[in-house]
Amino acid sequence: MKKRIAFRKLSRTGSHKWDMLRNMATSLIAHERIVTTVPKAKELRRVAEHLVGLAKKGNIHHRQQANAIVRTKPALTKLFEVLGPRYEERQGGYTRILKLARPRVGDKADMCVMEYVDRPGELRAARPPSSRQVDVLANVLRNVGITPLNDMTEAELVQATRELSVDEIDGSVEVDGEIKAESEDSGEIQEESKERDAEDKPEK
Predict the structure, then answer these.
(1) Where are any strands of DSSP class E within the chain?
(2) For residue 110, which of 42, 48, 46, 28 has the smallest C-alpha distance?
(3) Which of 131, 153, 178, 186: CA 20 to 30 A from 28?
(4) Which tens digit of pLDDT belongs to each residue from 70-129?
(5) Beta bridge partners of 37
(6) DSSP 127
């Protein structure tokens, strides 16, 4: 029975593979963006996100655990002083893997870019954490000139509710820029039209 087998082999021995992942994790922390093959990136993601989880806890015990993985002291300091506070509100998904169109020259291996999300200067912003989604949506509404409900006063909320209730009572519908009233007897009219069509059809 096989036990304690984590990560794929990557055509390397266990010690070589772990040394490679430690080097890649240290480079990812230092530069926050590296280029590697897709299988390596998928295995590195587990190590990188585990390190961020240790940095978010931030006590001495977890710092010693991270020190057993990270190679350099500057990278360890950045992990606990920069990356840990950055992802304080995010519950997971600290990294992103973007596949590249061109394979590696020589062996045609699939290449990708692996990076930490929410980093300065990123081209594609990540989805905000659930605790900040309401604030982000409110900022978007303010930018397009719509007042969010949280910013409305009590009088404005009452006025908006009255306008909605008036529209529902009126029953008017806007179609192609024209306001057309909905008929209450629309069902009866449709039934009458069906009866007329049945009478107009010639008998076989």
Answers:
(1) 33-37, 95-99, 111-116, 172-175, 178-181
(2) 42
(3) 131
(4) 999 999 999 999 999 999 988 889 999 999 999 999 999 999 999 999 888 887 778 777
(5) 111
(6) P
